[in-house]
Amino acid sequence: MINGVTMTINVDEYLMNALKEDITGEDVSTNAVMRSPKQGKVELICKEDGIICGLEVFQRVFQLLDDKIVFETELKDGDKVKNGQKMGTLYGDIRVLLSGERVALNYLQRMSGIATFTNSLAKELEGSKTKLLDTRKTTPNMRPFEKYAVTVGGGNNHRYNLSDGVMLKDNHIGAAGSITKAVAMAKEYAPFVRKIEVETENLDMVKEAVEAGADIIMLDNMDDETMKKAVAMIAGRAQTECSGNVTKDRLAAIKEIGVDYVSSGALTHSAPILDISLKNLVPIE
Q: Residues 247, 181: one domain?
């Protein structure tokens, strides 16, 4: 849940920037048909089955335009919704309901789509120790919302940004000269509380990463047979993460291999939106 304090400190600026992008001067269409304040209501309708996510963000967009806006719903993030379901009702100044509609729906549709897609993959890993992770492959200026949506859908967050942990990828290793050198330099530089993850592409790299003392070893774009050998070679001396070419159809095999984590950029960069609309706007006295 995105609570009030978190919303105000971390989220409001993102929402305001989105509103400023959509309303640079005025909402010409709304001002043309609505010359003065008038109270109204509009219904939030789901147009396909899925997992709802972002209800507080949706509401907050309107309240940044007018703190008197009221959103009534019995749903909470993570609930299942059905095609045709009325999910709630917005009450307030019709001008605000019209002007905030697109931005609010953009967040709600995007977050709900990610939660729905994540949930479909997370179900494939049920009953195993393997946890589903997202990546930093997020839409610019949407990371807080997209990573939150992953957790609502039943996934887990990898590092939030570059400051969260050490991940030594191929180019870092190339810059250092070897995995051994890169890990040694990371241990010397980074605080001891930060884990060190190393990306590997073959069994020779896995062996070097283990001997260098990596905390987490990423098995990048390996086929299932190579990954099995890598997990056996590591033998619990480091945590394991499968990454690259992760599809829903492949998750059953990955689960059986017994890696600790499987990460998928698709959770955030390829999830379709969940179709949601504001409909049936009417004035009220």
A: yes
Structural contact between residues 52 and 46, judged by C-beta atoms closer than 8 angstroms? yes
Tokens matching residue 91: 């009450």
> CB-based contacts of 240: which residues, under 8 Å, 6+ apart?
216, 217, 218, 219, 230, 231, 234, 259, 260, 261
- Quote the CA–CA distance of 282 and 94 in Å, as a whole number: 9
**What phi and psi values does residue 254 have, to the nearest 5 degrees?**
-65, -40
SS3 of residue 276 by DSSP: strand
Euclidean distance between CA atoms 22 and 144, whole angstroms: 20
Residue 3 scores a pLDDT above 80? no
**For residues 201 and 170, is the Cβ–Cβ distance under 8 A?**
yes
Q: Are 99 and 66 within 8 A, CB to CB?
A: no
Distinct helix (H) and strand (E) counts, the chain: 12, 12
| Residue 134 structural domain | 123-269
Q: Is this prediction's pTM over 0.85?
A: yes
- In the chain, the largest separation of any two C-alpha atoms, in whole Å, equals 74
Q: Which residues of 236-247 are buried (b: 16+ CB within 10 A; e: fewer)?
A: eebbbbbbeebe
247 or 82: which leads in pLDDT: 82
Q: To 10 degrees, the CA torsion angle through 81, 86, 91, 94?
A: 110
* Number of independent structural domains in the chain: 2
Least confident piece of the model among 178-187, 213-222, 247-256: 247-256
Tokens representing 28 are 């010409």
Q: Are residues 181 and 44 in the same domain?
A: no
| Alpha carbons 239 and 156: distance in angstroms, whole number | 16
Residue 22: strand, helix, or coil: helix
pLDDT at 1 over 50: no
Q: Active-site residue numbers?
A: 137
CA distance 102 to 99: 7
